[in-house]
Amino acid sequence: MSFYGKFPRTRMRRNRRDGWSRALVAEHGLRVDDLIWPVFVTEGKSQRTEIPSMPGVFRLSVDLAVEEAQAARELGIPALALFPVTDAKLKTDDAREALNPENLMCRAMRAIKKLTPDIGIVGDVALDPYTSHGHDGLIKDGHIVNDETVDVLTQQAVLQARAGCDIVAPSDMMDGRIGAIRDALDAAQLTHTRILSYAAKYASAFYGPFRDAIGSKANLGQGDKRTYQMDPANTNEALREVALDLDEGADMVMVKPGMPYLDIVRRVHEAFGVPTLVYQVSGEYAMLKGAAERGWLDGERAILESLLAFKRAGACAVLTYAAVEVAKALRRG
Ligand code: PBG
Fold first, then answer.
1. Which residues line the pocket of ligand 1, CB cutoff 6 A?
2. 170 Cα: distance to centroid of ligand 1 (angstroms)
3. Closest by alpha carbon to 30, among 259, 330, 275, 324?
4. pLDDT tens-digit series, residues 154-189
5. Total structural domains within the chain
């Protein structure tokens, strides 16, 4: 005997018959408040260059990024995530440009906050945009060294917070960086600055177009990030990563990439019940856009469906390069 009923008295299609009825029984939904828009900033003025492997995504000079941030806020997008395209001349082994208070990131943060103070800014805390070798950490004797890297990340986080960054987001996967960053922010009276930890970040092939965008792919060469980013074979390990970061003071955690890792989003959401974000990364965006450009997919529907899937899996917000077009589509209804 079934508690829920049986065919023919029970017909699952009845609730699906009309749009209004489907809307009433919908369990999940995507709202503009769920979106964080990653933006690549570059040097110069009035610069807007498309990234070939990410159709519709541009490297923007600060003046244009400021305009676009204002437009994004008007569309209702709550936050931006900034990534710098650092001049190749400024990349060094020790990533020292990361600690320059006048670097591109800091200038962009100050400029955006000045015009649009009510948009949240997420700052990428990591060294790969600044290292000549394209890694997220410092290298000694052929190894990415953890604690020395954390020292630099800590200073970088404080610098960004002072430049107006609301949420510092370490994307490097060094051990112990969340606690070190929290202590340093608190010591600098930046107790309100939030930490979004890229807690479960996998060593993924789906980051390729991003590395084109910030110009770190050539620097990284044949190198990979498997000594610090997670093995795609693991799920329990993601829960340990999240638990450690929460213990160290993370306010929000992230799973990355998104679509191939929906199981991780669900497990983290269920195990911890903390704000769980997900990053629809560059390779996911490129796949969807590439297929849409060829007419193989209805691009808008496919992107909306992929984002809804993140909500269903338990994410509270999504970083997506499609944030602006999605916000417009949601507004059209
Ligand atoms: C590196 C970083 C990466 C992304 C965000 N921060 C790439 C990497 O780990 O090599 C990827 C984002 C994307 O693919 O959209 N700190």
1. 124, 126, 128, 136, 171-172, 207, 210-211, 225, 281-282
2. 11
3. 330
4. 999 999 999 999 999 999 999 999 999 999 999 999
5. 1
